[in-house]
Amino acid sequence: MTHNLFIPESMNWIVGPTYRLGEKEFRVVWDDLKKLKLLDKCRTKTYNVNQGQMRIVTPMGSILEVVSAEKQDTLVGEGLDSVIMSEAAKH
User: Fold this and answer.
1) Of 32, 57, 66, 91, which is the most exposed, with the fewest CB atoms less than 10 Å away?
2) Is beta strand 44-48 parallel, antiparallel or unpaired with respect to 63-68?
3) What is the SS3 assignment for the chain?
4) For residue 16, how many other CB atoms are within 10 A of its CB?
5) Cβ proximity of 54 and 1 under 8 Å
């Protein structure tokens, strides 16, 4: 998923059965960007599991956010470039 954030204007999701389960994959990308020293250059970087707000917007306009499948209606209508289905067996 980290690689996909280098594609300009891409829309990327991590879909978890809950925000807490989606956070595990988000943490990997967050740590990758930290190691690459790119996290501080991101336009937006929010990492709050308790409020369900995990989102990164890169300088190239690429977006990564964690969404929850608890309310399935909120998952429709968005054009996505890539998706990780966190804990897919639980969906």
Assistant:
1) 91
2) unpaired
3) CCHHHHCCCCEEEEEECCHHHHHHHHHHHHHHHHHCCCHHHCCEEEEECCCCEEEEECCCCCEEEEEECCCHHHHCCCCCCEEEECCHHHC
4) 27
5) no
Please report how many Cα atoms fall inside a 13 Å half-sphere around the Cα of residue 88, on the Cβ side. 3
Q: What is the mean pLDDT of each run of 10 residues along the chain (91 residues)?
A: 96 95 96 96 95 95 94 83 90 78
Tokens in use for 91? Answer: 């969906």
Q: Given the structure tokens 């690459």, which residue do they identify?
A: 36
